[in-house]
Design goal:
By secondary structure, the chain is α+β, with helices and mostly antiparallel strands. The chain is 60% helix and 21% strand. Among the domains are: 8-93, no CATH class; 98-198, Band 7 domain (Tetrahydropterin Synthase, Chain A, 2-Layer Sandwich), CATH 3.30.479. The chain starts with 7 loop residues before the first helix and ends with a helix.
Length: 309
């Protein structure tokens, strides 16, 4: 920021006027007073006035000009002129987006948990006149408003909401700070919480709580899986109870699966072999094959009868 409004064009013009005054003075040494001293003196005064009256504001700057103590105009950006010794530039307002870091230490949440929060405020001046005339130091005022608003938000929110709903907290802070600074011609662009620190003991307790919640969920999932498996076994038992042949075939399949690997040996109790009743199983298989053959024999006969008709 160029606080004084000094600029190269005004400086160059002042130097040129001073140079012309010096040249005229040297060329007219020994002549009459008005020509030797009067004209150079006028040029020197003009150089000083040009230096004081010709000011320049940068693209993002606005100059607050007072005339005899009263607001005269808001100048800028670019070159502008003031009346020396009558007008004065009391403030140069930067209208770019600016940042202000702020924090709250050992602030109690609604559930009485002490927290340390660091945040940053992005703000911008949209009314230079009000920012210059309504408040003495708007930068300090913005910092104080941001800090008090942050503490108010912490005191009205539980810790879980601050930790899990940062975007909502940012939006709430932005709206509250913007509402307070609007009277000064300053708008809150955004607020971001950078860090939320809680006591180490509470961190350990929260970690144990989270671990317990995960273990609880894991046990619930395991119990649901056991319930589904038990239901499947119950359904299978009902099927086997109404169809002994299926149970015997399943038992034989289990034996086959355990002995199909080369070099493996399995000992089967004789009672288990008797319970499987291999003869009955073979008889059932023979009956099934006989029925299948009878069905296959009747199909050609039926087809021949249809052709003769």
């Amino acid at each position: 920021m160029n606080a004084s409004g000094t600029n190269a064009p005004a400086t160059v013009l002042s130097v040129l006027l001073l140079g012309v005054a010096l040249l005229i003075f040297r060329m007219n040494i020994g002549t009459e007073w008005p020509l030797a001293l009067g004209l150079p003196a006028i040029l020197v005064v003009a150089a000083i006035l040009v230096r004081l009256s010709l000011l320049m504001a940068k693209q993002w700057e606005r100059a607050v000009v007072l005339r005899l103590g009263k607001l005269h105009a808001i100048r800028g950006p670019g070159m502008f002129m003031i009346v020396p010794f009558v007008d004065s530039v009391t403030a140069w307002i930067d209208q770019r987006i600016q940042t202000t870091p702020f924090n709250a230490e050992q602030a109690l949440t609604r559930d009485t948990v002490p927290v340390n929060i660091d945040a940053i405020l992005f703000w911008q001046i949209h009314d230079p006149e009000r920012a210059a005339l309504e408040i003495t130091d708007y930068r300090q005022a913005i910092l104080r408003v941001a800090q008090t608003t942050l503490r108010e938000m912490i005191g009205s929110s539980p810790l879980s909401a601050i930790l899990s709903e940062r975007q909502a907290a940012d939006l709430q802070l932005k709206e509250d700070i913007g509402r307070k600074t609007a009277e000064w011609g300053i708008a809150a662009v955004s607020v971001e919480l950078r860090d939320v620190a809680i006591p180490a003991q509470l961190q350990d307790a929260m970690s144990r709580q989270a671990q317990a919640e995960r273990e609880k969920q894991a046990r619930i999932i395991l119990g649901s899986a056991e319930q589904e498996v038990a239901q499947k076994f119950l359904d299978a038992a009902n099927i086997y109870a109404h169809n002994p042949a299926a149970l015997q075939l399943r038992a034989m399949n289990i034996i086959y699966e355990t002995t199909k690997e080369r070099g493996s040996t399995i000992l089967i109790p004789s009672s288990m072999v008797d319970s499987m009743n291999p003869g009955g199983v073979l008889g059932l298989a023979a009956i099934a094959n006989a029925r299948a053959g009878a069905v296959a024999a009747t199909e050609p006969a039926a087809a021949l009868g249809a052709t003769s008709d």
